[in-house]
Design brief:
Length: 298
């Protein structure tokens, strides 16, 4: 019986060691790739100094085309927005950007409009994309700030990589295998960090009777971003992207705001209620380039 238990023990320990070793290799491979935005910023972005960066969720990712903005404004920017994230994640991305020794004059934050007033902070759906950098204090501290099970697994991955890799298997392990053969592949973004939704064959028409919503900009994570920007001599701009049926009214003087919520007046420019398509992205990026230029006049 004791021999049997000893063999079981050896098998369990061996499985544990091999699983952690494979998970470590998986995270190491992702760190060498450009598949997700955090490693893309490390491995594929050679520039150090930027005029502006775009942080945000899917709205920022698909609305502001930095290539168009750069061509019209003569400035240099990059889109670091990640879909399915909120302002807390975008604070983490700014920390990551600064930790790499990179600089920017302006930080544009473009989350979903509801994020500006969100009071409760929680782990976001795509925060696991920072998992390859869990050994860095600002990443592990971020994961530890949440009490959910998946957050604990991510923070525990600092010591036992198999915890996060096994939980986010399809989002971490399989992309790491893909990155072995295609290390320069990106996950739904181009060489400037941008992505766009296609034009759909929808009924064309003018948008009427938009609902008016007031935002107070009370998200605590937004205040943390402002404080981080202040410490690094960065000007923060809160950007509100176009929304098909809603007009946003800002109810604060605490932040610099560019509000494009009601700029697009035709349905042709939208992919869905909160995302523009490639036509809308072009129009808005041109408008944004003009607005951005005013911040560089001095």
């Amino acid at each position: 019986m004791s021999i049997f238990l000893k063999k079981i023990g050896i098998l369990i320990i061996s499985t544990f060691v091999i699983a952690n070793l494979l998970s470590y290799i998986s995270l190491w491979t992702l760190r060498q790739s450009s598949f997700y935005k955090p490693s893309f910023l490390v491995n594929a972005v050679s520039e150090t100094n930027f005029d502006y960066i775009v942080l945000g969720a899917s709205t920022g990712l698909t609305t502001l085309d930095t290539q168009v903005i750069d061509s019209l404004s003569g400035k240099k920017g990059i889109n670091l927005a990640i879909d399915d994230t909120s302002i807390s994640s975008q604070y983490l991305m700014l920390e990551h950007f600064l930790a790499l020794g990179k600089t920017t004059k302006i930080c544009v934050i473009a989350p979903s409009f509801t994020s500006f007033d969100t009071q409760i902070q929680s782990l976001n759906a795509n925060d696991y994309r920072f998992l390859p950098y869990v050994d860095r204090s600002y990443v592990s501290d971020y994961f530890q700030s949440f009490s959910s099970v998946n957050a604990k697994l991510l923070s525990g991955s600092k010591y036992f990589p198999m915890l996060g890799v096994s939980y986010y298997n399809s989002e971490v392990f399989y992309p790491s295998l893909l990155s072995v053969f295609q290390p320069n592949r990106h996950n739904r973004f181009d060489t400037n960090g941008n992505y766009t939704y296609p034009v759909q064959d929808l009924m064309s028409g003018h948008i009427k009777n938009r609902q008016s919503i007031k935002l107070n900009f009370k998200n605590g994570a937004l205040k943390k971003i402002q404080e981080l920007c202040d410490r690094n001599n960065i000007e923060l701009i809160c950007y509100i992207s176009p929304i098909k049926n809603i007009e946003i009214v800002s109810n604060t003087s605490d932040y610099e705001i560019i509000n494009h919520s009601d700029v697009l007046i035709k349905t042709d420019y939208f992919f869905d209620n909160v995302h523009v398509n490639s036509l809308g992205r072009q129009v808005i990026s041109e408008r944004f380039a003009n607005d951005l230029s005013s911040y560089f006049k001095d």
